[in-house]
Design goal:
single chain, elongated, 8 strands, BFN domain-containing protein, eight-stranded mixed sheet, alpha+beta, Bifunctional nuclease domain, 165 residues
Length: 165
């Protein structure tokens, strides 16, 4: 992999309004603040959510099956790389470690992230992708002192403070 990548953490999945779209959120690990939000299908949203929550299902889901197949072949998923953004579509690769070699497999990004959640694999994003589609988390724009002051206010305020005289 010759292109520069940035390590990201899969922070969660959510429903985004309007239209109740499903998204997965990634946050930069080394210099927190840059985020990447990717729209995904409901099936992948549920698969990622279940994996992040450690929820077991009575029967294996598709991504559980694929994890079992990979492990049965003596391999493990070490890294997921989001390599490209083209025409609003993200492209990804799975880097499978067999002990002797690394095998690269193309994947839909949503499937790659669902597997990353199951394997606790590293997630990398191409710097070019992050520059094109990443954004700063607005929560990181607030200095800690402002946040601490607001928390103190919330902890000490009572409904009586808002009564009219």
């Amino acid at each position: 992999m010759s292109e520069t990548t940035v390590k990201m953490q899969l922070t969660g999945v959510r429903r985004e309004n309007p239209g109740d779209a499903f998204v997965v959120d990634l946050r930069e690990v080394e210099a927190p603040g840059r985020m990447l939000t990717i729209f995904i299908g409901v099936g992948e949203w549920q698969a990622i959510r279940f994996a992040l929550e450690g929820r077991d299902t009575s029967r294996p889901l598709t991504h559980d099956l694929l994890k079992s197949v990979i492990e049965s072949l003596g391999a493990s998923l070490e890294t997921v790389v989001i390599t490209e953004l083209r025409d609003e579509v993200y492209f990804a690769e799975l880097l499978l470690n067999t002990g002797d070699t690394t095998i690269t497999v193309e994947s839909r990004t949503s499937d790659a992230l669902a597997l990353a959640a199951r394997f606790d694999a590293t997630v990398l994003v191409s710097s070019k992708v992050l520059e094109a589609a990443g954004y700063r988390d607005s929560d990181d724009d607030q200095p800690e002192s402002v946040i601490a002051e607001f928390r103190e206010f919330i902890d000490t305020v009572s409904p009586d403070d808002f009564e009219e005289s």
